[in-house]
Specification:
Helices cover 41% and strands 9% of the residues. By secondary structure, it is mainly α. It binds glutamic acid (GLU).
Length: 510
């Protein structure tokens, strides 16, 4: 089956069929795969951006190629201070490493576009020499008037309709525009979307270099992708409609086209609309602050819009690199499923060792817990496995702590009489002799594990009836209707505290 041609500039349809383009192995044709992630430093590192970076990274690594992090800082007005560091921190956090980047210039020179201005001028000069670039003769106001007029007349604004008859020499004080040589319909191939086409209405005399000396995105990314040897341009679908513009520039510069690989959009969980802030689209580092593990985010993002073609859901970075192919990138949007994210985080949280989990839990505890008299790292270390088996994300620990779920571990609870009463006991006092006996047994018990504590009382519990003993014992220790089993509770609070709590309970009941 051939992919249907998809037309851009007009309505375009999504469908779920996998594309059938072949992953031509570029190593067999001698070219090394080079991909890049090219963010603008405008502040926010949303998950869509990280996902694009991740796919570009995975593909480069899979093919034994290079991955470049290029900062497109050519719009000084939109630049947000600190975002270059923020981008790097975000990518590093989930384990995306670049071969060349702002901190690692290497063979391509600087990976900051603001430090490559001479290069864009050199390419611009080529176009000027070919008669394909000219200084914009109008003032900003005049251009604004053309635009308004077009709007009033309900037609698209096209600068080429105002192209001057003769061109001045460009002295750098005016924007330099492209003289689009041919207004025609473009057809191209996208590795994910298949055959695409878009038309004349997208072609115009776009600005190449602005009056401030900085290039536009339209121009600079083509120059850089070429100079850096980028073989696969992987980016969001918002760039599809501009592709004819890019293609007309590739042609004018006599630069061969790279392969275009369009990322599927990230949709809200219902799959119906694009993910927005209200559906949980946050800055990637906000997920870090919330207690999502980097392994979770890497794995989770990799499965939005890509699938391995098997049932496997948990992947390490190495497994993702191994499994990744362009063929399995979907055309249609991939849903951001927060429940799956929680599930996955729990899976990864269960794999981390106790000392790491102690640090994780400690960061979640409010003052009301860390300020309790018996709060210590030792006790917390003993409590942690009971938390680790249940929690999906750090906020669940904070919420549970705030409702008092863990307080018993760090302070002697006040235990109400009613709660201590086992439902089959006729009087509250019934449990007292059992508690006395268990006190005696535990006073000589080995407290090194919950199992050793259990071994000390288990025969007696069998003899008097498990519920009859274990209920009052557990409640005496935790003061709660629900808590870990009594042996775990005893192990967590330690022998002295266990014996004290049993005595307290006997007094309450007596
Ligand atoms: N600087 C562009 C952006 O942040 C890059 C697009 C591209 O990957 O070509 O959207």
């Amino acid at each position: 089956m051939k992919n249907p041609v998809t037309t851009y500039g007009y309505a375009f349809a999504h469908n779920n069929t996998m594309n059938e383009s072949t992953d031509t192995n570029p190593t067999s044709s001698g070219t090394r795969v080079v991909t890049r992630f090219a963010p603008s430093p405008t502040g926010f590192m949303h998950i869509g951006g990280v996902r694009t970076a991740l796919f570009a990274y995975l593909y480069a690594k899979k093919m034994g190629g290079e991955f470049i992090l290029r900062i497109e800082d050519t719009d000084k007005a939109r630049e947000v201070e600190g975002s270059i560091e923020h981008i790097q921190e975000s990518l590093r956090w989930i384990g995306i490493e670049w071969d060349y980047g702002p901190d690692k210039p290497g063979i391509h020179g600087s990976c900051l576009q603001s430090e490559r201005l001479d290069l864009y001028k050199k390419y611009a000069q080529k176009l000027i020499d070919k008669g394909l670039a000219y200084p914009d003769p109008y003032t900003t106001d005049e251009v604004a008037q053309f635009r308004e007029k077009a709007q009033e007349e309900k037609r698209p604004f096209l600068f080429r309709e105002h192209r001057p008859e003769t061109f001045d020499t460009w002295d750098g004080t005016k924007p330099l525009r492209f003289k689009v040589p041919e207004v025609k319909r473009y057809h191209w191939h996208d590795e994910v979307r298949g055959a695409l086409e878009a038309g004349e209405e997208m072609l115009d005399d776009v600005i190449l270099i602005k009056a401030d000396g900085f290039p536009t995105y339209n121009f600079a990314h083509i120059v850089d992708d070429h100079e850096m040897g980028v073989t696969h341009v992987m980016r969001g679908e918002e760039f599809i409609s501009s592709t004819p513009k890019f293609l007309s520039l590739y042609d004018a510069l006599e630069i061969p086209y790279p392969k275009f690989v369009t990322m599927p959009p990230i949709m809200a969980a219902d799959g119906k609309k694009k993910l927005g802030k209200r559906d949980g689209a946050k800055d990637i580092l906000a997920y870090k602050n919330d207690g999502y593990l980097p392994e979770t985010m890497l794995n989770f993002l990799a499965l939005i819009g890509w699938n391995p073609g098997t049932e496997q859901e948990l992947f390490s970075k190495e497994e993702l690199i191994e499994a990744f192919t362009l063929e399995k990138i979907q055309r249609s949007g991939g849903a951001f499923n927060e429940e799956k994210l929680l599930w996955m985080n729990k899976e990864y949280l269960q794999k981390i060792d106790t000392s790491a989990y102690v640090a994780y839990a400690q960061a979640a505890f409010p003052e009301s817990i860390t300020g309790l008299p018996n709060f210590s790292e030792e006790t917390l270390t003993k409590l942690v496995p009971t938390i680790q088996e249940r929690v999906h994300v750090r906020s669940e620990i904070t919420e549970a702590a705030e409702t008092g779920e863990y307080s018993w571990a760090f302070t002697t609870p006040e235990v109400p009489k009613e709660l201590l009463k086992w439902k089959k006991d006729d009087s509250a006092h019934d449990a007292v002799p059992r508690l006395h006996k268990v006190h005696e047994l535990l006073s000589t018990a080995d407290f090194s594990t919950p199992e050793s504590i259990k071994a000390a009382v288990w025969d007696y519990a069998e003899e008097v009836g498990r519920g009859e003993l274990l209920w009052p014992l557990r409640v005496a220790l935790s003061g709660r209707e629900r808590s870990p089993d009594p042996f775990t509770c005893a192990y967590i609070v330690g022998k002295d505290e266990t014996l004290l709590r049993i005595r307290n309970a006997s007094e309450t009941l007596a």
